[in-house]
Specification:
This protein has 110 residues and is mainly β. It has no helices and 12 strands.
């Protein structure tokens, strides 16, 4: 198990400024964004229609807009623009230009 549930996702050079990239991290669909050189991770699934598309959204002013439905989320928090809860956000750390995202494994209780 990775230390503190931080999983290596990619190298920072693989991300383009103000564009999303999609990654599967421990069975969770994640969208990574680089905004002003800082890295953010949010769930890639739009809560409106459960579409795995947030990484393709339009990025502007620290927000991403779902290309299917037009809902806009703050990338740093995952909240819908205006404050209500939207996308889950994930802690990110960078070590030697590698990006790690903290994802807590889902536990099934049968």
């Amino acid at each position: 198990m990775p230390e503190n549930n931080y999983f290596k996702v990619c190298n920072i050079a693989e991300l383009k400024e103000s564009q999303g990239e999609r990654f599967l991290v421990n069975d969770i669909d994640i969208a990574l964004f680089k905004i002003d050189g800082k890295i953010y991770a949010v769930n890639n699934v739009c809560p409106h229609k459960q579409a795995n598309i947030m990484h393709e959204g339009f990025v502007e002013n620290g927000c991403v807009t779902c290309p299917l439905h037009g809902w806009t989320f703050e990338i740093a928090t995952g909240n819908l623009l205006g404050g209500s809860r939207g996308l889950k956000s994930y802690p990110v750390k960078i070590e030697k230009d590698d990006i790690y995202v903290q994802v807590i494994p889902k536990e099934l209780n049968w």
